[in-house]
Design a protein that fits this description.
Blueprint lengths: L7 H13 L4 E4 L4 H9 L5 E3 L1 H7 L10 H12 L6 E4 L7 H13 L4 E5 L18 H14 L6 E6 L2 H4 L1 H13 L4 E4 L5 H10 L5 E3 L11 H7 L3 E4 L2 H20 L12 H8 L1 H12 L8
Parallel strand pairs: 1-8, 2-3, 3-4, 4-5, 5-6, 7-8
C-alpha cells in the first residue's frame, strides 16, 4: 500500500543475484505503473521500461525526442509500486559521456536496479529500423567509463547495448561487446541478432550476462524460453509486447463502440471493477484509513 516494502538497494542486490544464478529471467516491458504491478502479480522476474514505449506513450516516435528527466519520472512512478527489480532503457545516455554520467545518477535516485546504454549516435533510432549509425568504439567506451565512474551503488547494473550487428556485422558487434565489458559493463545487450547461431556466437564469445531482445515485428526471431535457456542467456526481454496488446485492444474497442453505439459486447473483454480494485489494493487502503481516522480515545485521556 502506497509504496513497496523493499528498498532500491535490496532490489539491486536481488537483480545481481538473479543474473548470477544461471537461470533465464523473464522480463516484460511495463506500459505504466499499474501494468508493472500486474507483471509482478503474474510471476515474472523483473520489469523493463522501454524508451520506445515511453516515446509512444507520449505520442512520439523512438528517435531520441524524450529526455532523461521524463524517463526518470516514469521510473520513479514504477519503482514505487513493484517489489521487482526494474531495468530501464537509457538510450545513448542523452548526450556526451558527462550526460551519461548524470543519467546514471538520475536513474539510481529513481530506485531502478539497472540501465542499459547503447552505442548509437545521438539522436538514436529504433534498434530494428534500417538507417542506424553507431558511434566509434572509443566513444562508446568513454560513455561506459563515465557511467561506471558516476555509479554510487556498486549493485546498480550497467548494461551496454550494441547496435553494431546491423551496421558493421556480427564479428564487429562481438568485438565491441568485449571492449565494453573491459570498460566496466556488467552485462551485454546485443541488438537485432538474426538467428539462433548469432545468439550462440555471442554466448561463446562474451563471459558476462546476456540479454535477448524478443521484440515483435523486428529483425530477431521470437525464440522461446527453452531455446534461450539452452544457449545460456540470462534475460528474455519482451519490451513492447504489453503496449502492442493494449493498443490493439483499445483500437478494436473504439471501433466496436463507434459501430454499435454501446460497450455492452465489450464487457467480457474488460478487466472487471473488482479485479482492478484488487490490483490496486483498495482493501489495504481502507484498513489503513480506518486505523488512522476511525478510532476512540481510551478512558481518562
Amino acid at each position: 500500500m502506497l509504496h513497496t516494502r523493499t528498498t532500491p538497494a535490496e532490489r539491486r542486490r536481488s537483480f545481481r543475484e538473479q543474473l548470477a544464478s544461471g537461470r533465464l529471467l523473464r522480463v516484460p516491458g511495463a506500459i505504466n505503473p499499474l501494468s508493472a504491478r500486474l507483471v509482478q502479480d503474474t510471476g515474472f522476474d523483473a520489469v523493463y521500461l522501454s524508451g520506445a514505449v515511453l516515446a509512444a506513450d507520449l505520442g512520439l516516435p523512438d528517435i531520441g525526442l524524450t529526455t532523461s528527466t521524463e524517463l526518470a519520472a516514469r521510473a520513479q512512478q514504477t519503482t514505487r509500486v513493484t517489489d521487482l527489480p526494474v531495468l530501464i532503457d537509457a538510450d545513448t545516455g542523452f548526450g556526451e559521456p558527462m550526460n551519461a554520467a548524470r543519467t546514471v545518477q538520475l536513474m539510481e535516485d529513481a530506485g531502478l536496479a539497472g540501465l542499459h546504454l547503447e552505442d548509437q549516435v545521438n539522436p538514436k533510432r529504433c534498434g530494428h529500423l534500417d538507417g542506424k549509425s553507431v558511434t566509434s568504439r572509443e566513444e562508446m567506451v568513454r560513455r561506459i567509463r563515465a557511467a561506471v565512474d558516476a555509479r554510487r551503488d556498486p549493485d546498480f547494473v550497467l548494461m551496454a547495448r550494441t547496435d553494431a550487428r546491423s551496421v558493421e556485422g556480427l564479428a564487429a558487434a562481438i568485438d565491441r561487446a568485449k571492449a565494453y565489458v573491459d570498460a566496466g559493463a556488467d552485462a551485454i545487450f546485443p541488438e537485432a541478432l538474426a538467428d539462433v547461431s548469432e545468439y550462440e556466437a555471442f554466448r561463446a564469445a562474451v563471459d558476462v550476462p546476456l540479454l535477448a531482445n524478443l521484440t515483435e515485428f523486428g529483425k530477431t526471431p521470437l525464440l522461446d524460453t527453452r531455446t534461450l535457456e539452452g544457449i545460456g542467456y540470462n534475460i528474455a526481454l519482451y519490451p513492447v509486447t504489453l503496449l502492442r496488446i493494449a493498443m490493439g485492444a483499445v483500437e478494436d474497442g473504439l471501433r466496436t463502440l463507434a459501430a454499435e453505439g454501446t460497450q455492452e459486447s465489450l464487457l467480457p473483454r474488460m478487466q472487471t471493477r473488482s479485479r482492478l480494485y484488487e490490483l490496486l489494493g483498495y482493501d489495504a487502503y481502507a484498513a489503513f484509513d480506518s486505523s488512522v481516522f476511525d478510532f476512540t480515545l481510551p478512558p481518562g485521556t
